[in-house]
Amino acid sequence: MTAVQEFQKTHNAASVGGDVCVVLNPRSGKKDTKPETPDLCGMIQQSLGGHCEVKQVSRDASPTQLANQAIKEGYSTVIAAGGDGTIAGVATALMETDVVMGVLPMGTFNYFSRGLGLPEAIPEAVSALGQSSVRTMHIGDINGRIFLNNASLGIYPTILRERESLYKKWGRNRITAYWSVLLGLAGLKRPYHLKITVDGETFEKKTALAFVANSAYQLEAFSLEGAEAVRDGELALYLTNATRWGELARHSMNLIRGGAIHGREFQLVTGQTITIEAARKNTMLIARDGEKERMTAPFKFTLRRNALNVLVPDPA
């Protein structure tokens, strides 16, 4: 029995209408958990209806480029199959259009898809997409570039650099990702002196990390305050109170265990517009949904409201 036939036995068909393009990142996730392309398209056609095509991300074709191509070709639904970076790339093309985005979780943490209520197993996630409704969502913006879950400056981009190196050596998994946190913290030389303005109120802070969140699910996963503010249409800014390596390592372990506390490990500020400047630094490395790039200060964080149409599973 093929994977598609097995899927047909256990999942009911439901169509959201129109043809579907899947933007697949073959480098995301574990190879042995990803279905072959024909099987994936077969499952999607059974669940969502319409024609299905898979476009694969490569060095010459980014998720954003492939999603833009799908828009030009007239697809009404584009499914991002990959990690949070792949999903953000597809969202960059689809935001403020009528095209609907679906998500298949194939990354390490899958915060965005888990926040939507999607299962992490691909057959179950495909089935859930077929039993979904379209909802509009707010998208985070930093200096004109978007983020779905978070954007940050400071020590976190260094952690991502360590993570990429470890992934190449040991493969993509959550244990490796957590280990990269400790190695990345060792690269801290001195804290940053930041000037921060939140909804018109300005203050200064010495800190090793400024982390802006737009995912209530991710915050709740780490038992952090601020999720309700995000649901209410605000961004949540976290500023670590640690300024030395030992403090950062201890605070990071508390965060992983879900025991980080506002006022002890970090300072929390929420608002709709956040601007950050760093003393003596015109450019800094910025992390957005697991991807990193250098940007020019000041760094302005805002929300693009109701900018993205997303398939969200209906309540059971």
From TrEMBL:
It comes from the Bacteria. Gene3D superfamilies: 2.60.200.40, Probable inorganic polyphosphate/atp-NAD kinase, domain 1. One of its GO terms (molecular function) is kinase activity. The keyword Kinase applies. The keyword Aminoacyl-tRNA synthetase does not apply. It comes from Donghicola mangrovi. This is Diacylglycerol kinase family lipid kinase. Keywords: ATP-binding, Kinase, Nucleotide-binding, Transferase. Coiled coil: none annotated. Pfam families: DAGK_cat (PF00781), YegS_C (PF19279). PROSITE patterns: DAGK (PS50146). Signal peptide: none annotated. Residues 15-146 form the DAGKc domain.
